Amino acid sequence: MRWAWVVLAATILAATALAGATGGVAAASDATATLDSTVTLHPTDALDSTDALDRPRDEAHGVAVETNATYAPDEPVTVTVTGQERSLYALYVYDANGTRQATKRVSLESDEETVSFGALPPGSYRVVVVAVNVGEQVSTTFGVGGAYEPGVVPEVTVDQPADVISVPISLPNGTTRATVTIAGDRGRYRVTATVVDRDGDGEVVLDWNTFYAGRGKVALRTPGEDAVVDATRERDLDGFLREGEYHLTVLANGTVLDRGAVVVDLEPLYTGRMDVFEAPAAESPEASFDQRVSTGQVETDEWLFIVVHTQGVFGAVNATRDLRSVGPDQVVLSITPENGDGGVRLTAADYVDVEEGRIVVGFAPGSDALAIDTQYDVDFRIMRAHPYRAGDEGMNVNVRVVAAGTEPDRPVVELESVDAPESVPADGPANFTVTLVNRGERTGSVPVSVTIGGHVTEREVVVPGNGRTVVDLSFDTSRVLEGSRQYVVSVNGSRETGTLVVGDADADGGPTLGDRSDEDGSLPGFGPVAAGVALAVVVLAAQRRNRSSN
């Protein structure tokens, strides 16, 4: 029977090999599934010397308002405001005639707070909530003693002095003209104008510049093809537009289309911050600005952009001429060399963009307005005599202009550190955290790879100029044998090596038997099926031997 044991052993080995091959196919399939491991980019950190990104600050404060649909005549009206904790919010309640019925200000103690206005007379109402520090506003409607009637309560715009207020006006079918009246300040201010729908879309957007509203030309205009004609002001104001509520009336064909109100809320002007950027020459100033990076040193073959983040000076600044000190009602932007030479003429700027909350002044590569090897003080100031000032408001930054080629314009990406696991389970993922640093001025992309046992996981990673990026790579260890294995992390010619244990640290790299089956305690490849096959082979061989003996 010695031969039977040989056959049995051979059968067991064959069954084990078959099971191993099946497992290998499954492992290969799993490896293929995990080969495209994902990369997680962490938020970019700035280098110690330079702020790498133009991070928005105080520019995305969401605000929401919620009320009941209806209230009983004797029921207190409650308004729930959702916003930013410790921020100031103004609440205005208007009745169907556009008359302000109540005003409250609240500094949120949490991100949500409910304010009560007490009982209000029956009617339709609109409540407007304004984030005071950033000017964002939302509104909603409700009814008291009955449902809110759509179209009764006027839209209300609340804005800062010196800002431009946009009022959309919808005209009836076939109507191309409407008369708009804005009146307030106890009758001291009254402007009348005709708006003309020239593009035939049935709507005219009327812009009212509150900074220039009281003097000079009537501060009304329409963007695009539409027009404002016959604009008149009854009298000039002795100064700037006062804080208060200005009633808006729109008439067409002798019929009142709408009544509303514009609330000019006197909050102090301020400048939040000022930044200096450099950017490469591109097909347009806007395209160059999109590639900007923060810097304290700009080469002469680069764009120099100065960005002032402001509140409340939008209407006061339309061009570089408004950034000069030509009177007590102006704001001032000055660029002065520290060596005592004359200041840079702002009219020599190659690019100026003014929008609400931001002023951009740019000097193109090779600008004659800037001197090489010169340090400049950049100051933005709201003059003390400004009627909407917040005291001595001002910001200052410094920038040095240097010769072209002084700094590397190309990406200079290096491998800074690798965080690797000491051990991972067999067939498990090995997660690597790789920190990259770009010491160049330009954003660039580089391949990052992890190699173990001849197998590679690689990804392309974008690293911003003057910044750090942290990337996570997951390596599928089912592709390598168990034991102590060397890894190599490569980035742009830089590499770091180390060792990690995959599965069993004492594995010799050859085939190993796995654990017993949890179901029947048998070794892999010697479960019930394999045992049955082996037994059948032995029985068949025995029968053949008996026949031959006979």
UniProtKB/TrEMBL annotation:
InterPro entries the record matches: DUF7827
Gene3D superfamilies: 2.60.120.380
Domain DUF7827, first and last residues per copy: 156-250
Protein name per its UniProtKB record: DUF7827 domain-containing protein
Organism field: Halorubellus litoreus
